[in-house]
Amino acid sequence: MFNIDFSLGICLFLFFAVAVVLAIWLFGMKQKDKDLSLNPKFIWFCSICAYTYINTKEEIISVCPRCGSYNKR
Questions:
Q1: Looking at the structure, do residues 46 and 61 belong to the same domain, yes or no?
Q2: How far apart are CA 51 and CA 5, in angstroms?
Q3: Which domain holds residue 47?
Q4: β-strand partners of 44
Q5: I need a surface site. Which of 2, 14, 29, 68 has the fewest CB within 10 A?
Q6: pTM higher than 0.85, yes or no?
């Protein structure tokens, strides 16, 4: 078995704890960097209540989620 000093044990624990936090942070940054793009054809503008909303169905007519009116592309 290995005998280590108390201060060395604390240093190793802190080193590994910081390494884990750094790895999680870097992985999170990598996930955040993914570009989320939205095609402009999915953005709808209601002509009645002036609400801008997203409808990903490729339809000619869409129903506004706020007022329920029908909007034409």
A1: yes
A2: 66
A3: 40-72
A4: 53
A5: 2
A6: no
